[in-house]
Design a protein that fits this description.
The complex is a heterodimer of chains A (455) and B (241).
Chain A (H helix, E strand, L loop, with lengths): L11 H24 E5 L5 E5 L1 H31 L7 H61 L8 H18 L3 H20 L7 H21 L1 H4 L25 H4 L7 H27 L1 H11 L1 H6 L4 H27 L9 H14 L4 H18 L4 H6 L9 H15 L31
Helix pairs in contact in A: 1-2, 3-9, 3-10, 3-12, 3-13, 3-14, 4-5, 4-6, 4-12, 5-12, 9-10, 9-12, 10-12, 13-14
Chain B lengths: L3 E12 L2 E12 L3 E6 L5 H8 L7 E6 L2 E2 L5 H6 L2 E4 L11 H8 L8 H11 L1 H5 L10 H13 L5 E5 L7 H18 L2 E6 L2 H7 L2 E6 L2 E7 H6 L1 H8 L5
Parallel strand pairs in B: 3-8, 3-9, 6-7, 7-8
Antiparallel strand pairs in B: 1-2, 1-4, 4-5, 9-10
Classes of the chains: A mainly alpha (455), B alpha/beta (241).
Chain lengths: 455, 241
C-alpha cells in the first residue's frame, strides 16, 4: 500500500490493536452485565449463573465491529471527506418533490392496503397497534413541535396536557354523557387553558430552568390524578369511557349500530378504521394549522422568539403573549390527542401519562429535527412503529432462544439509535428550515448599486 | 423650530445594587443625528437599553414624542416608532434576510411593506443579493446592515444604533456611516448613535455627548467635540481610521 496517499493508508496493526482494546473494554463492561445472571431456584434461593458463551459472543461482536470500522468504514469516510461536495442528484430532487403527496396518499390508503395484504382477521392489529398508535405520536410530536421546535421553549411536561385532554373527555363523557364531537373541542380548550396556566409562571424562564419547571408541572398533574381519588379514581383509572360514534351511529352489534345501518356484517374493524381516519384527520389538522401559522405574524414571532427574545421585544413583539399562545396552541393539540386516546382506549389511568411519555414525544421532536414537520413524522414512525415492529420479530427467538423478547431491548436500541443520530445529524433527521416567505419576483440589483463588489 | 423627540431627565439605572447610570440628562431633537461616545463600561449601552425599557430606570423620566415611556414595557415603546439596532446585532440567524426584514415590519403598516423593503434594499444593496440566505450565514458587516435595515422596516421616528461599527472592517464602517447619513439627509430620520469609534461618530453627528462613569461630562456640536482637547487626548489619539 505504498502507493496510497499517507492519509488514506489502512494501518492494519493499529486497527488490530484498537479492536483488541475495544474487546477488552467490552469484556470488562459486559462481564457483570451479561456474564453473570442471578436466578431463583426451586427453593427460592438466589443463585449465580454464568453465561460465558453469550458474553464471548457479545465481546466478539464488539471487537469485530471495531476492526471492521477501522479497516473499512474509516478509510471510506476519509476518502469521502476528500471528495468535493456534489450537488444532490436529479432523482433525489425529484423524489423530494413527490414525497409529500405520496406519503399522504399512502397514509390515506393504509387501511385498505393492510386489509388487502394482511386479511380481515389480522388487519385490526396492524391498523390499531401500528397505524393509530403511530399517528397519535405523530400528532403529539407536531403539537410539541410548536412549543419546542418553533417557539424554542423546552417543555418536558407535555404529557400533562395530553392527560388533561384524556381526563376531560373521560370525566365529562361519563358524568354528563356529552358526545365525543362536543368534548373534542372542549378538551382542546381545557388543555390550552392549562397551557396558559403553566405559561404564566414560567414566562421569565428559558432553557434548562424552563425544562425543570415544565417537568415538575407534568409530575404535578400526574400526582394530582393519582391522589384525587374522588374525581379520577386514582391508580385504578377510569373504565367504561364512552366510545366515539359515527356521527351519532354507534359501532356495536345492535340493530341501530354502524354495521346494521350500512347493511354490513358486524365486525370490530369498522370502528378501528373509523378511529384511524379520525386520528389521521386530527394529525393533518395539526400539521395544516402549524404550516399556516408559520406564515402568519404569530408563527413568525414564535420562530423569532426561538432565535432571540431581546431582539423580538425591541421590534415590538409582545413576548408574553407570544409565549402564551405557543403554550396554548401546543397544549390544545395535546388535548385533542388526549381525548382521542381516551375514546379509543375506553380506559385511562395515570400510568399512561408518565414522564417517559413526555420524554418519548420530546425525543421524537428532537430526532426528527426541531421545527420540521416531515422529520417529526418520520421520527414518530421510526420510534413508535419500531417498537411495534419489534413485537413481530419472532425469528430472533430462533437465534437467541425462546425466552428472548426483543421489546425488552427497546430502550437500549433507542438509546443507541439516538446517540448515532445525534452524532451524524446533530440537528435531527431533517435540519433544513423552510423559509416561511420568499420573494416572488427575483430582485435584480445592478452592479452599479453594489459599491464594493464582492467581498 | 426644532421639536424635541427624546428627552432623558435625571435617569438612574441600577444593576442590582450597582448604579450604572448616575443621573443622565440628554435630548434628541427631530431630524438630528446625536451621538453618545465614551469608553468601555461608561454606561452607553445601558442608557440605550434603559431608553428601550430594559432595564427600567429607577429614577428620572424618559419622554419620547410626548409620551412618558419610563415605565412602558419594551414592546410598547417599540410600537411608538422607536426602533433599535441593538448591541451585538441580534439578528435572527436561522431565518432568512427577508424574514428578518419582515419581523422588523411587525409594527409598520402592512400595505407599505413592499415600499419599505425596496427602500432598505436600495440603501443596502448587498442585502438584496442575500435576500434568501439565512441571517447567520452573512458576514459581520452584512449582519450589521441587516440589523439596521430590520430596524428601518418599522418606519421609525427615532433610530437607536448601538455600536454599529463594532468589529467591522474600516471600509464597511464607512459604508454603514454613509448609509446613516443618507437616511438622515434624505428622509429626515432622527438617529441616536452610541459609538466607541469617536472620530467617525462625531464627524457624522450634529451633536454629541460624552459619557464617563455613568454621567454625561461634555456635550456640544459634533465639530466642537472633535476639536475639544480632552476628547482629542482621550478618544481620538490613534483612534483615527
Amino acid at each position: 500500500m505504498g502507493g496510497d496517499a499517507p492519509g488514506l493508508r489502512v494501518d492494519t496493526v493499529r486497527a488490530l490493536r484498537d479492536a483488541g482494546i475495544t474487546a477488552l473494554l467490552a469484556f470488562g463492561l459486559f462481564l457483570p452485565l451479561v456474564g453473570f445472571q442471578t436466578v431463583t431456584d426451586v427453593r427460592n434461593d438466589l443463585i449465580l449463573v454464568t453465561r460465558w458463551p453469550l458474553l464471548l459472543a457479545v465481546v466478539a461482536v464488539v471487537g469485530i465491529g471495531r476492526l471492521a470500522y477501522s479497516l473499512a468504514v474509516e478509510p471510506w469516510l476519509r476518502q469521502r471527506a476528500l471528495l468535493p461536495a456534489t450537488p444532490a442528484p436529479a432523482w433525489r430532487v425529484q423524489a423530494g418533490k413527490w414525497f409529500l403527496p405520496f406519503a399522504i396518499g399512502f397514509v390515506v390508503a393504509y387501511p385498505a392496503i393492510v386489509l388487502a395484504t394482511a386479511g380481515f382477521g389480522r388487519a385490526v392489529k396492524w391498523i390499531d397497534n401500528f397505524g393509530i398508535q403511530v399517528l397519535i405520536y405523530v400528532m403529539l410530536g407536531w403539537g410539541l413541535n410548536i412549543v419546542v421546535g418553533l417557539a424554542g421553549l423546552l417543555d418536558l411536561g407535555y404529557v400533562a396536557f395530553y392527560a388533561v385532554g384524556a381526563y376531560s373527555y373521560a370525566l365529562l363523557a361519563k358524568t354528563f354523557g356529552f358526545s365525543f364531537w362536543i368534548l373534542l373541542p372542549l378538551a382542546g380548550v381545557l388543555a390550552s387553558f392549562w397551557g396558559i396556566l403553566l405559561g404564566f409562571p414560567v414566562l421569565r424562564l428559558r432553557g434548562d430552568y424552563l425544562a425543570i419547571v415544565t417537568l415538575a408541572f407534568g409530575e404535578i398533574i400526574r400526582i394530582v390524578l393519582i391522589n384525587w381519588v374522588d374525581l379520577t379514581n386514582g391508580y385504578a383509572g377510569i373504565t367504561g369511557i364512552p366510545r366515539p360514534t359515527f356521527f351519532g351511529i354507534p359501532f356495536n352489534a345492535e340493530d341501530d349500530g354502524f354495521a346494521a345501518v350500512f347493511g354490513l356484517e358486524f365486525s370490530p374493524i369498522y370502528r378501528t378504521i373509523f378511529l384511524y381516519y379520525l386520528i389521521l384527520a386530527l394529525a393533518l389538522l395539526t400539521a395544516f394549522v402549524t404550516v399556516r401559522l408559520r406564515r402568519l405574524p404569530v408563527g413568525r414571532a414564535w420562530e423569532a422568539l426561538r432565535e432571540d427574545e431581546i431582539a423580538c421585544r425591541s421590534l415590538g413583539i409582545n413576548t408574553t403573549n407570544t409565549k402564551l399562545t405557543a403554550f396554548a396552541m401546543g397544549a390544545m393539540f395535546a388535548g385533542f390527542a388526549g381525548s382521542f386516546f381516551a375514546a379509543r382506549q375506553g380506559f385511562i389511568s395515570p400510568d399512561s401519562f408518565t414522564f417517559l411519555e413526555s420524554a418519548t414525544i420530546l425525543s421524537i421532536v428532537v430526532l426528527g429535527g426541531m421545527g420540521s414537520q416531515i422529520g417529526v413524522a418520520i421520527a414518530a414512525i421510526a420510534m413508535i412503529g419500531g417498537t411495534e415492529i419489534m413485537r413481530e420479530l419472532d425469528f430472533l427467538k430462533l437465534i437467541f432462544g425462546s425466552t428472548f423478547d426483543p421489546t425488552q431491548y427497546r430502550m437500549l436500541l433507542f438509546g443507541f439509535a439516538m446517540v448515532l443520530i445525534m452524532i451524524w445529524r446533530p440537528r435531527g433527521l431533517i435540519s433544513t428550515r423552510e423559509p416561511s416567505v420568499v420573494l416572488k419576483e427575483r430582485k435584480i440589483i445592478g452592479a452599479d448599486l453594489v459599491k464594493e463588489g464582492h467581498g | 423650530m426644532t421639536t424635541r423627540l427624546l428627552t432623558v431627565r435625571g435617569v438612574k439605572t441600577f444593576y442590582g445594587r450597582v448604579m450604572a447610570l448616575k443621573g443622565v440628562d440628554l435630548e434628541v431633537n427631530e431630524g438630528e443625528i446625536v451621538t453618545l461616545i465614551g469608553a468601555n463600561g461608561a454606561g452607553k449601552s445601558t442608557l440605550m437599553m434603559t431608553v428601550c425599557g430594559n432595564p427600567r430606570a429607577r429614577e428620572g423620566t424618559i419622554e419620547f414624542a410626548g409620551h412618558d415611556i419610563t415605565r412602558l414595557p419594551t414592546h410598547e415603546i417599540a410600537r411608538l416608532k422607536l426602533a433599535q439596532a441593538p448591541e451585538g446585532r441580534r439578528i435572527f440567524s436561522r431565518m432568512t434576510v427577508l424574514e428578518n426584514l419582515q419581523m422588523g415590519s411587525i409594527t409598520a403598516e402592512p400595505s407599505e411593506f413592499a415600499r419599505d423593503l425596496d427602500r432598505v434594499l436600495a440603501l443596502f444593496p448587498r442585502l438584496s443579493q442575500r435576500i434568501g440566505q439565512r441571517g447567520g450565514t452573512l458576514s459581520g458587516g452584512e449582519q450589521q446592515m441587516l440589523a439596521i435595515a430590520r430596524a428601518l422596516m418599522a418606519q421609525p421616528r427615532l433610530l437607536l444604533l448601538d455600536e454599529p461599527s463594532l468589529g467591522l472592517a474600516p471600509l464597511v464602517v464607512r459604508q454603514i456611516f454613509d448609509a446613516i447619513k443618507t437616511l438622515n439627509a434624505e428622509s429626515g430620520l432622527t438617529v441616536f448613535l452610541v459609538e466607541q469609534n469617536a472620530y467617525h461618530a462625531l464627524k457624522l453627528a450634529h451633536r454629541g455627548y460624552v459619557m464617563v462613569n455613568g454621567r454625561i461630562t461634555l456635550s456640544g456640536t459634533g465639530r466642537e467635540l472633535l476639536e475639544h482637547s480632552e476628547i482629542k487626548s482621550a478618544y481620538l489619539e490613534g483612534g483615527r481610521h
